[in-house]
## 1
Amino acid sequence: MNLLEVKDIICGYGDNPVLKGLSISTDRGVLTGVIGPNGSGKSTLIKAVSGLLTPGSGEIRLDGRLLCDYSPRDLARRLAVLAQDIHIEFEFTIREIVAMGRHPFLGRVQREGVSDRDIVEQAMAETDTLHLADRSVTAISGGERQRVLLARALAQQAELLLLDEPTSHLDIRHQVETAELLRRLMAERSMAVLGVFHDLNLAARICDRLLLLCDGHTLAWGTPEEVLTPDNLYRAFGVRTAVERSRHSGALLVETL
């Protein structure tokens, strides 16, 4: 049994379906990337799996149990989400933001214990944000904020990590470090990662499986080699590409022609 099973979901906003009979599955130790043109349903899929959107039909199961059967607290203990464009206007410190990832494990008036604080420190260390711990979240750059929000998600210690453009706003160094961190965490924590990527070369480099969406449907699903073909990319994006392997890293490289 896979950790996550999405079966034939139709999901969207109001009377406008975005995902039209979509199915996907993933398991612990697998990094699944979701790619496709703007408006193809990538972020809608993340919202549906996170419980923010309820499909009109079909089903989503987490560890064999229907997603709708989880309480919000129980769901927050099983999955963590790093979404796009999270606005934080209050003067929380970075440490306070990351510590919010421990809230699902605390009672209503329970304070953090030593183990919670250790988990928060570790999450900040892993995302290179420990030096920002006492700064206000409103006084850091967009890239730093992205890493802080990733640290908060890691502090939840969830089995399933949902990422919507996890490397947006990051410089090339932190893109590479974030990719390496995700791979290491999957091995160490036996977790699954489902993430939206716009950078096809980064997705090819770090993902085990890719889902290529187009107009709410699955255009291709499989390994990067199976999905990132010139024909598939032309059908999805309408541009001619060349796909070859890097002489240095051996990773697939996608170039427009």
## 2
Amino acid sequence: MRATRGGLILLGTVGMAYGAWLLVSRQDLGQIVEVVLWLAAAVVIHDGILAPMVLGLGWVGGRLLPRAVARGAVTVLVLLGPAALIAIPVLDRFGAKPDNPTLLDRDYTQGLLVFATLCVCAGVAVALGELRSRQPARTNVEEE
């Protein structure tokens, strides 16, 4: 396990270094500043809005819903929340240009609905697993 973790850390570090080199070597200063601002905004949005909202909703759900249902609901929230935030620009078709029909050329709403369905299935699986783990184990011992 230690070697696998080390290999993944090395691979990730090499990938980030390559991406940083491409950014610095192929973009002008204005584009680099835009990337830095975008990354800073992503951190602020995640740590300042999304994470506290998920924690708060998870806490409220844990108080109001049965435990198994609450765990499934939090699973759906953690999976679907960030995806929905990321999907806002394409759902509203920001950046679409009439002279370039290849931009935003898909039905992104349908894709988000498919992903939402998969997230709900994952939440149901978590809830069922929680319920199953609470049931006493069945034994095949015959009564004498």
## 3
Amino acid sequence: MRIFAKKSLGQNFLNDENIINLIAKTGEVNNEDIVIEVGPGTGKLTEKILEKRPKDLIVIEKDEILVEYLNKKFGNKIKVINDDMIQFSYSNFYNKKLIIFGNLPYNVSTQILTKWIKIKNLSSFCKKFILMFQKEVADRIIAETNSKNYGRLSIISNWKMNIEKIIDIEPSSFKPAPKVKSTLLVLTPKKKIFNLKDPKNLEHITNIFFSQRRKMIKKPIKFLFKDFENISKKLSLDLKLRPQNLNNLTYYKICEIYESLIN
């Protein structure tokens, strides 16, 4: 069966053996692990994960042709779920301490990551995520305060995750080759996180701040809080700063105060 990448599904199949081996090794899979791979493509990484002898290996693939191909290739060695990785419900896996691998389609990668972050007890759900992103997206995820890439994605991702960059990957490692570089990240859920009631509130606040990232923070603070001057003093905020000058913890504290006032 000949397989062709579908542009409509954002498919770029990884075919660099050295990178595939590195990804599989980074997972540190053992025989007690339940592994989920999203977007397995033609199953080249799947083969390497199987060599680690996980307890179970589940792959989630939207493309029905690839589903048929993977079932023929692996038989009962894996479980193939024909579903959209964005729509898929992980409710049956909430306390399984999964290891999740994913070569995420560029057009939906942040949407998928945000969905995982919103899972309530993330450290009970997943041991680690080994994920490939478009380099530009990865740069935003790992960006630090006062840098041009720092913003919503970094703040939201670092709320629940420890993030490590492994390697940048050239377009030539894929077929067809994308126009941009990719980056492999390992995201490990934190056991202790800043206690917020609802991730949507953090999304809301960071959206308000970074929709006008060049403006001083006085404007979003004033928009969010009637008593903005006292709240600014409480948080020791210099209202002349720009959104990228506030560190992650400051945004979590702003969100905490916001949540206390809306409930």
